Amino acid sequence: MQSPDQPSKPPSADAKAVVLAPGVSVHESVLRCSFVASGGPGGQNVNKRSTKAQLRVFLSDLGLNDFAHKRLTRLARSVINSDGEIVLQSDGTRSQAQNKAACIGKLRELVLRAQVEPKRRKKTKPTRGSIERRIGAKKRRGEQKKLRKDPDQ
Question: How far apart are CA 102 and CA 89, in angstroms?
């Protein structure tokens, strides 16, 4: 037990935290990783080893602000299941560790993209010159079509 005069450690100092983006880190236990057999060709190794990594994390466990949470929901809509859980997979290598690292990299990329606020669109008005050019082009096109007509009509 600590004495009252000793400063206490923050809980995340001794626990393993995974940094996903500036200001966003989660405890390693929140990221649930499982390994399954990879599909496709690969010979005897792929039949014996479970190297495909599946990373699962709940959106609510990431600790994002409301706007970033909404953007992440929109960005990751193809990998979010009905329980609100992001499910990422990687089977690019024959190593479990590398595939797990690839899944965490995909999650980092998603979180980073969700944190970037899109620039607000400023409404603009066409210039007088562009309006005049457009109208002039329409008139020239109309004249061209008039010249095609049979003069008897």
Answer: 8
The domain total for the chain is: 1
Examine the pLDDT at 135 and tell me if it is beyond 80. yes
Q: Which pTM value belongs to this model?
A: 0.65
Sign of CA dihedral 7, 11, 14, 20: negative
| 147 domain-assigned | no
Residue 150 lies in a domain: no
Flag whether 111 is in a domain.
yes
Q: How many CB atoms lie within 10 A of CB 95?
A: 13
Beta-carbon count within 10 A of 36 CB: 12
User: Which single residue is written with the structure tokens 């980073």?
Assistant: 112
Three-class secondary structure assignment of 52-121: EEEEEEEHHHHCCCHHHHHHHHHHCCCCECCCCEEEEEECCCCCHHHHHHHHHHHHHHHHHHHHCCCCCC
Query: Is-contact 34 77, C-beta < 8 A?
Result: no
Mean pLDDT for the chain overall = 82
Note down the domain range covering 56.
15-117
Question: Is 51 part of any domain?
Answer: yes
Provide mean pLDDT across the span 51-73: 87
